[in-house]
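Lab intake sheet, docking and co-folding queue.

SAMPLE TYPE: protein with bound small molecule
LIGAND NAME: thiamine diphosphate
LIGAND FORMAT: SMILES
REQUESTED OUTPUT: full 3D complex as structure tokens
PRIORITY: normal
SUBMITTED BY: R.K., bench team

The fields below were copied directly from the construct record.
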Amino acid sequence: MKASDLFVLCLENEGVEYIFGVPGEENLDLLDSLSRSKKIKLILTRHEQTAGFMAATYGRLTGKAGVCLATLGPGATNLMTPGAYAQLGAMPMLMITGQKPIKTSKQGQFQIIDVVDMMTPITKYTRQIVSGQGIPSRIRNAFRLAEEERPGAVHLELPEDIAQESTDAAPIARSDARRPILEGKALSKALDLIKASQRPILLIGAAANRKMTAKMLRAFIEKQGIPFVTTQMGKGVIDEEHPLFLGNAALSDKDFPHRALEAADLILNVGHDVVEKPPFFMNSGKRKVIHINFLTADIDPVYFPQAGMIGDIANTIWQLNEALEPQKHWNFEFFSKVSKALREHTQRGMDDQRFPMLPQRLVHVIRQAMPNDGIIALDNGVYKIWFARNYPARLPNTVLLDNALASMGAGMPSAMAAKLVNPNQRVLAICGDGGFMMNSQDMETAVRLGLDLVVLILNDSAYGMIRWKQEDMGFEDYGLSFNNPDFVKYAESYGATGHRIGADAELLEVIEKAFASGGVHLIDLPVYYSQNVPVIFDEIPRESGKLVIE
Ligand SMILES: Cc1ncc(C[n+]2csc(CCOP(=O)(O)OP(=O)(O)O)c2C)c(N)n1
Ligand SMILES: [Mg+2]
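RESULT FIELD (auto-filled):
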């Protein structure tokens, strides 16, 4: 068999459904083999970054490695950002790149950089395939590593002459190894700590979203009555309308959930790792932390947990819930105050209909437009903080945001992948005018794929997030404003539908209509960010700081 045919067979064997990419000359043998696959669909994009973000999001939502494809040199360098996005964000993804023939080459160093080496710092595994015979084991190992905890990016380089070889090797079957589970002594040590604590709290992070621990955690919270805080990437594991919800750690500190974490004497940290911006610092030494995760903790100056419960998270929570009874001396009075104050605060601005729109109001309108299972996919900008903080996520993986690499440009591609994976759910991309324009060319891909997708552009004609930090640091307003294209005409030129919002009351109506009519819609919404600094840096710290433990 031709090696490139075997390569495709091995991908089929892994259950691959899509390859997202931009092929180059060096991928043509693989492309030809792919053209005969009945199981894998090639999704051509207009930039490798889009392909990578889509593959990573596919992996994030399914737990199966998403696959993207690029050529050597410039194609491979364009995959660096989504590679880092998948790696930091723990999203399983395989990047495949081509290469000139490795045995003989007549082209000198034209387009050649050491791609395998370049991928080293942003992958779990990066290899050049040097023989057709090696294809099955390389692919199997790449998928195993991408998908195993902690998931991430892997890379394989398939050179032209290897793709053309003939080989008699065959795919290696997927192994069904189970994840290790919590060991008994770790359970009893954790039980001692929890029983001795006065004010335990749960922190729910990204890893709890990965493997659907929602059911076990819900049962745990119901039986024990321990309140919880979510991290940005832990949103939705437990319904954020739950009465024991104490807020999302969207800001770095001094918000209501941080006050709760500070007041706790024991944090049960479920699935948070330090790649996501830490919601609490351990250096005060006042609080104990139990690290509940698939793997032991990465130690950091701000994170060095005293105990670990290592193993499959859902199983750990189940074991813990069986062995533990709610303790009479647990005191959640302060947490109740936090809960009340948080709820009061997040109501503010909800009904303020001034225009351009306030982010607080925007979040409220979008929550009304989205059913519980509707998915919002956020790019990176100021609004991400407001959505993380004020948008109650009702179900797992319905708020797709990136609080790990926090790259601009991923909002619309991740929404596109979410729609492919969940064709029956509403999917809304929410992007700044800066972030949207970083990959706006792939509107064409969304239209070509016939996706039903609504993209909301928050228009402040600026890199607002940086402008806001600039203001907070006391600098002059400089170097962060730009002009935008006419987004309505821009959408139309792609065969999509464009809308411009001119008043508060129009937004909900336009979104409803856009979802009802199907196809790709672009909505240009003017936003007003100038309240960010007083609210985030003054009002929230002041009001949350008033809460005291009696
Ligand atoms: C690829 C990339 N470049 C730069 C940054 C730094 N950065 C973070 S937010 C931001 C501005 C975002 O502007 P926009 O998308 O318009 O959103 P806004 O904050 O204005 O709502 C920048 C430049 C980044 N996170 N990612
Ligand atoms: Mg902007």
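REVIEWER NOTE: The chain is about 40% helix and 15% strand.
SIGN-OFF: pending second check by T.M.
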